[in-house]
TrEMBL record:
Protein name, UniProt field: prolyl aminopeptidase
Residues covered by the AB hydrolase-1 domain: 29-135
Organism domain of life: Bacteria
Subcellular location: Cytoplasm
UniProt main location, coarse: cytoplasm
Catalytic activity reported: Release of N-terminal proline from a peptide
GO terms of molecular function: hydrolase activity
SUPFAM superfamilies, alphabetized: alpha/beta-Hydrolases
InterPro entries: AB_hydrolase_1, AB_hydrolase_fold, Peptidase_S33, Pro_iminopeptidase
Keywords: Aminopeptidase, Cytoplasm, Hydrolase, Protease
Family, similarity comment: Belongs to the peptidase S33 family.
Amino acid sequence: MKPNYIEETIAINGIKEYMIHYQGEKDAPVVLFLHGGPGSSESVFAYYIESGWSGNYTSVYYDQRGSGKTYYQNKNAIPTMDNLKEDLLQTVLYVKEKYQAEKIVILGHSFGTVLGSMFAIEHPEHVRCYIGVGQVIDIIENEKVCYSKLACAIDDAENEKDKEKLSAIGVYPPKSDDAKLLKKMNVLRKMQGKYNLGMKIDWNLIKLILKSPVVGWPEILGQINGMKVNNDVFRELWDYSLYAYNRQYTVPVYFILGENDNETPTEIAVKYFETIIAPEKQLYLIKNAGHMTMLDNLKDYQLALKDVLERNS
């Protein structure tokens, strides 16, 4: 384990951005972790993700605009896809300079794969390789599959009350201008958790958060307000599709996917992965893991990550 971490706040793109570094040896590969959401900081889990690690690399986590400690210090800085992309570019440039690295590894999780994929395609000059965990491909396709799987699970359970609750959502996925878009998505995600098709906010997760050495009121406030603050980003995401981008990457591409991920369904990511061209590509399917792959099966996630870094050393 890299027991020592460094916290800092940097000034980029007109905001104060929170970062946490777990440093390897000099000249070790640098991995920039892009969290999910939008609005769901994962720096609070960094201590767990980095625990038990036997390899040599430097990992950097940052809270995006509208998330975690960055939200707490910039409550009036409203996120959009454009400013999140510019924030990422400036963050990458800062990290490269700090560690004197010609290129760094971009690792995205969930919504972070949206930012990460676009960055790898648009700014390959900064990217050593791209890693997608819980890879998002197409939002509408994603939500259609989520809804279909949940409906089947409810039918199998013969739960009439939940059938009515799901039916009350109406047409899903809704249009991006639907005033109740976030509310409908929230209902779906909570029901997915109930039927083991999504992340559960249970005592085990709460304990993991409370054990974090960097947890505090700023993170809690950021999590509470994250979805609301990122309302515009969610609506922009409704039109997002990785199918619309060039599938010929100029950097190595790796997907680390939980076999049981039903929030960003694994089968969609696998289907897309088979169609891309890259200098090198490799798919890792992590058993006994869902959307929170690194929390569900840390050992196998770390083994996959170690293999990727060794391939790019």
